[in-house]
Write a structure and sequence with these properties.
CATH class: Mainly Alpha
CATH superfamily: MetI-like
Number of strands: 2
Order of helices and strands: HHEEHHHHHHHHHHHHHH
CATH topology: MetI-like fold
Shape: globular
Structural class: mainly alpha
Largest sheet: 2 strands, antiparallel
């Protein structure tokens, strides 16, 4: 009885594999990825791992290293200048909330038919195109006592001698710097919000208008639920920027008069005082804080989504087919 002969599949040689379509795809992919991955590792991952290593040493850029363990991390929360800089970030976090509110307001207005909307979109986004150092110098001369702002106020009746020193008075100078940051970065949020609002189905607005919904109801029940993901993304970016604010206090006041933010203190410790280990620990702590804030915001968003999904009324709001009815479910008011 003869045995069945199984068809044997010949394995390709390396040369045949290189000439095949699959082999050429893999070779091209690996070839084009080698240089970018090498640059990414050399200038991103390797410095990061070295920074983590430096954070456990008392060291300068040149000289002997002394292993101190977690002492640098303890100093971040016990030194007056480092901890005060962390508290100062609360000013910029509050400013990020104001920035988000202004961006939502302007984006909602400019997303509809408004005379000169294209001009105002460009004007509001223009500060984002200016270098942060240049913006700092602009506001440095604008707020210097006796210069532009004081001159403008004197024209409307204020006495220049009674006006405060906007950049020296510690009760208002941080608020002034936060306002400068809002002016520079609000345009970025506006552009993102306008793009998100443009993706909302226009028939929802038409149906809501027919049913008598006013502007506030359309914003609260149609626009805001539809762009919630972009709102959370902008909030994460804004809070991260608040924790790492650097340009305005560094250029405008040089970190003086109680305006030294976390990044300004880190720069001073690393480049002026040559405390590389402590500055590296501050950078690691900042990274951890940004990650904690990001995860907290994402967890809060997930919790709110799950809570709304369990509510039938909220489900009707977020359903694209019934969003207009939800917006018009209340009595109409004058816009």
């Amino acid at each position: 009885m003869s045995k069945p002969v199984a068809a044997t599949k010949r394995r390709k040689t390396f040369g045949q594999w290189c000439k095949s379509m699959r082999g050429q795809q893999i070779i091209c992919t690996v070839t084009f990825l080698i240089l970018p991955l090498l640059l990414l590792f050399t200038f991103t991952y390797l410095p990061f791992f070295k920074m983590v290593e430096f954070s456990f040493f008392d060291m300068r850029y040149i000289g002997r290293r002394i292993f101190v363990g977690l002492e640098n991390y303890i100093d971040v929360f016990t030194r007056d200048d480092c901890f005060r800089a962390l508290l100062l970030s609360l000013y910029y976090m509050a400013g990020s909330v104001v920035q988000m509110a202004l961006a939502l307001l302007f984006a909602t207005i400019l997303s509809f038919k408004v005379k000169g909307s294209k001009f105002f979109r460009g004007a509001l986004y223009f500060p984002c195109l200016i270098c942060g150092i240049a913006v700092g110098f602009i506001f440095k001369f604008f707020f210097t006592h006796g210069f532009v702002l004081d001159t403008l106020l004197s024209w409307v009746g204020f006495d220049v001698d009674t006006l405060p020193y906007w950049l020296r008075d510690e009760s208002i100078n941080n608020i002034v710097l936060v306002a400068c940051s809002i002016w520079k970065y609000v345009g970025q949020n506006i552009v993102m919000f306008i793009g998100a609002i443009a993706s909302v189905d226009s028939t929802l607005y038409e149906a809501a208008e027919i049913d008598g919904a006013n502007a506030w109801h359309k914003f609260k029940d149609i626009i805001l639920p539809s762009i919630r993901t972009i709102v959370v993304l902008n909030l994460i970016i804004s809070v991260s920027g608040a924790l790492s604010a650097f340009e305005m206090p560094y250029v405008v006041t040089g970190g003086g008069f109680g305006t030294s933010t976390y990044f300004v203190i880190m720069d001073k410790l690393a480049h002026t005082d040559q405390k590389v280990g402590l500055a590296s620990a501050m950078a690691i702590v900042l990274l951890a804080l940004i990650m904690i804030v990001t995860f907290a915001q994402k967890a809060a968003e997930k919790w709110l989504n799950e809570r709304e999904d369990r509510t039938p009324r909220a489900r009707r709001k977020t359903d694209p087919n019934t969003a207009a009815q939800a917006a018009s479910a209340r009595p109409a008011h004058a816009e």
